[in-house]
Amino acid sequence: MEPPAKRRRLSDGDAGRDRKASSSSRAPASLSHPISPPRKKTVEKTVKERRLLPSPFRLTTITDLPPESNVGAVSLKDLLGDPLIAECWEFNYLHDVDFLISHFDEDTRSLVKVHVVHGFWKREDPNMLALEEQAGQRKNVTLHTAFMPEMFGTHHSKMMILLRHDDTAQIIIHTANMISKDWTNMTNGVWQSPRLPQLKAAQGSPEIDTTRVGSGHRFKIDLLNYLQAYNTRRDVCKSLVENLAKYDFCAVRGALVASVPGKHDVDQDLEKTRWGWQGLKQAVKSVPVQDGKSEIVVQISSIATLGGTDAWLQRTLFDALSASSSSKSKPTKPSFKIVFPTPDEIRRSLDGYASGGSIHTKIQSAAQAKQLQYMRPIFHHWANDCEKGIAPEGAEPKDAGRQRGAPHIKTYIRYGENSTIDWALLTSANISKQAWGEATNKAGEVRIASWEIGVLVWPELLTDDPRARMVGTFKTDIPVKDDFDGESETPLVGLRIPYSLPLQRYGNAEVPWVATASYTEPDWKGGVWGGW
C-alpha cells in the first residue's frame, strides 16, 4: 500500500538521520580524483537498497510530551483539518460534538455534513441528553442510534469515514473516544486508508478472489457488511453504504476484524464476513508465521470479568489468536503476555489518577480474585521503569516514549524469536466476552454484545513480497536498515510500538489498576482517587 503524501513525509529527525548516513558513506575529498592508472573494467553486481516502509499504525500526539516523543504522531486536526472534507461519519462510544467540530477547517466546519453514530438508546442516559443538546445547536450534525440488541453491550467501535469534495473517500480506524481527554495525554493509535478514488464508469468486473483476506476488495466487502448491520431495525447507514460502494478499495492493504452484536452461526463459508473471535481467527489463519518460538503481546485498556477459570481466555480468545497458515500438523503454540498498568503507573502518568477513569478491570469479588490468580503470571507493565517490575536480564532497552502517556490504545502483536513481527492488530476491542464473543454454544452460535472494529496487517501484505519482514520502531515510524540482519534486498516494514521493551512482569505483590477501588497514596499531582 502506498501511503498518502502526508504520511510519507519524514520528520526532521528521520531526514537528518538519513542525511547523516548518506554523508558518512562518501569517500574523502582527497580520493575523489584518480591517483593511479585506471583498472580494467569489471562487471560489478548491483546491490539493491533495502526498501523501508513506514508503520501502518501511527500514535496520536500527546500534548505534554516533548517533540522527540511525538515524531510521526498524528493529531485530530491532522485527520480532519482538510477543507476538502465534505462529509464525516463518526462512530464511537463517547462523543463531544463541539470538540469534534472544532477540528474541521474553520472556514468549512459549518458546511461539513457530520453524522454521529452512537449506542445510547435509553432516553434518560446523560450521554444521550448531552449529545442531543450539542447536536441540536448545529444544522449540519445528524445523530444515529446503533442497533443495540444486547443489554450489556456498548457501541465501542472507533472509526471515521470521510467523503471529500475531490471525489475521494478515506477510512480511519482508531482507538480514541471523541473527547478531549483521549486526544490530549492518553496513548492512542490510528490506521488510515489511502484516499480512495471513485470507480470509473466503464470499469469492468474482473475475476476477483473475494476470499483473499487482506486484499482491498475483501476489506470493502467486510466493511460494507459491517455497515449494513447497522440497518437491522432502521436505515442508519444506508446512504453511507450506497456511497462507499462507488469507491475503489484496491489500494487498501489490511484485514478488517470487527464485531457486530447478536447471535451468529459458526459458518465455514470463506466468502462470508465473520464477526468477533471467529473473524479474528479467520484473519490470522491467513497470515504466514515464522517457525520457532513466538509470543503474542495483548495490550489493552480494559479487562472484563471472564470467569473463575481461564477456559474462555485460553480456549476461545487465545486459541483464535494462535491460528496461522503454518503447514505443520502441530505448529508451536505461542506464549502470551498481557500489558496492563498498575496503580503506580497511573499515579505517575501525565494526568495522574484522572487517566485511570478510562482504564478498567475488577478484582474485588471471589470470581474476580480467581481471575487475577490465573492472569497474574502473564501480566506485564505498560511502563517498563517500574520499581517492583521484573525484567529479563541482558535485553536491549527500547524506549517508546510513552511511559507517562496512560494507555487507551489496544494492540495485539505476534513476535517471532528473532524480534521480527508476524502480524499486528490495532482495534477498539479489549479482553472481554462482550467484545470478542462467547464460546460457541450447543446450537453452534457465537453471541456477541458489542460493536468493535480493528485492522490486521502483516509484512507480506504491505509489500507484495514474501521475503518482507516487520520490525518494531520506537519514537519513529520509519525502520532503519540495521533493524534486520537478513539479506539486503529484504523489504523492511516498521511497526510503531506504543510500549517500551523489554516488558517487565508484575512483581509478586503487584495488582492491576482498578478504577472502582480507592487509592489514598497521592499521584504526582498530589491528588487521590475515591473510586467510581
Give the gist of this structure.
The protein has helices at 5-8, 12-24, 76-80, 97-101, 126-136, 216-228, 238-244, 276-284, 311-322, 343-347, 366-375, 433-436, 459-463; strands spanning 52-53, 57-59, 85-91, 113-118, 141-145, 159-164, 168-174, 189-192, 196-197, 255-259, 262-265, 294-299, 335-339, 379-380, 411-416, 420-427, 445-448, 452-457, 469-473, 492-496.
Q: Any overview of this molecule?
A:
- With 532 residues, this protein is α/β, with parallel strands linked by helices.
- 19% of the residues lie in helices and 18% in strands.
- It is built from 13 helices and 20 strands.
- The strands form 3 sheets. Strands 1, 10, 12, 13, 14, 15, 16, 18, 19 and 20 form a 10-stranded mixed sheet that branches. Strands 2, 3, 4, 5, 6, 7, 8 and 9 form an 8-stranded mixed sheet that branches.
Largest sheet at a glance?
Answer: 10 strands, mixed
- Tell the overall outline: globular
Average per-residue pLDDT, rounded, comes to 90
Question: Cα distance, first to last residue?
Answer: 44 Å
Per DSSP, the total helix count is 13
Share of residues in helices? 10-25%
Strand content: 15-25%
Gyration radius (Cα, Å) is 24 Å
Number of strands: 20
Structural class based on helices, strands and sheet pairing: alpha/beta
Please identify the oligomeric state.
single chain
The low-pLDDT segments are 1-37, 42-46
